[in-house]
Give the backbone structure.
Amino acid sequence: MEKTRETFGSRFAVIMAMAGSAIGLGNIWRFPYMVGQYGGAAFIIVYIACSFLLALPIFLSETIIGRRSRTNTFGAMEKLAPGTSWKWLGLLTVISPVIILSYYSVVGGWSVEYLFKSLSFEFTDTDAGSIQSLFGTFISSTWEPLITHTLFMLMVAGIILAGVKSGIERFTKITMPVLFVLIVVMMIYAISLPGSGAGVSYLLKPDFSKLTMSAVAAAMGQAFFSLSLGVGTILTYASYVKKDENIFASSIGTAVSDILFALLAGFAIMPAVFASGVEPGAGPGLVFQTLPFIFNKMGTAMPVVSSLVSIIFFVTILVAALTSAISMMEVGVSYLVDNKGMSRLWATVTVTVFAWAVGILCSLSFGPLSEVKILGNSIFDFLDKMCSNFLMAFGGLLFTLFVGWKMDEASVRDEFTNGGTKKRNSRWFKTVYFLIKYVAPVAIVLIFVTNLIIS
Ligand code: TRP
């Protein structure tokens, strides 16, 4: 007899769990620097379009597969398409998140370092110029970033081993709203700084003439990365969703809150970028070079408040990063436990050591290994591009193809509308099915191939 699978208690719980995975460094760290590298407002418009037209269909495909099969990616494919090669999709979804984890942990480590710096009042006791060079010195050194990368990795492994996921989830319910409020406060403060106006218009006035094909591919990649798509994370979470839950409403809720978080972060960072004179295209360090500038400015008027805000801010970022990182590690660990018969301890050790070792190379690629280029990119950028622009897009494509072409339409409709009981979903079904079956796959392939040819 089949065991009854645990389920999330409420729509709020579902959105919080999925948003816990979705909202992370992707919104606060990755989004602003992508916007800066690919030209501002035009990039944001493409990103939002990709989120609704391509990412949301993938999100829904993963939710439909997950809830219908009530098991992880491997099992889901076996259950819904037994004996086919769809099971290989499962393998892709194990490898990608572990690679992502390796460089994600490096950036997680940077937040650890910045938390330490806030605790020792380094931002309030200095000037704008030194804040920028602080990051450069830190990142290009050999040992410090490796130590913080290791610390972050150990925290992730510790949480996975202790299985305090429910504790973490309870914790996120407090930290997410706190982070939200803090970002809004910082955004308002950043916009009020002298010289910030240029940043605001950079975000609001699109210049489509500068929009290149690689910017479009990057916008698509950002939408996928930010919603944790194409690697089965959402699929696995959806397998815990109740049968009478409205998956359409929950998915839209998650996507909208994720986009909102990214936009808020953009509106907090970009004005500060222009006010502080940092180059918008500065790359992965952008947020770390400009956030402390806001704290520093705040500090001249209210030193205690500013230090407190910066400490709370980096703690909440760290928690947001951890809740995303555990969702990556869990995929690999549960695969090794369920399919390879490893103990949870050994599975965790294996994944941790692998991701940690790859992460070392990523971290060093900002310093001693900065000369090493793969297809013109640093090791860090290469892995990030390979995952977000290719592996995740490929996984996402396969999920939409599975729902659009492999599953029969009646079961998809049944799952999407909860057996026809959700009237609004029934009205939306045709549009959503069209997006899943045609629009998303065709657009992904087009962007994918064009980018491949020109890059
Ligand atoms: N979406 C997360 C963020 O924006 C990162 C993330 C979590 C992720 N799980 C993932 C990315 C799985 C890719 C795949 O920070």
Observations:
- The chain has a mean pLDDT of 90.
- The chain has one domain: 11-454.
- The first helix runs from residue 11 to 22.
- The radius of gyration is 21 Å.
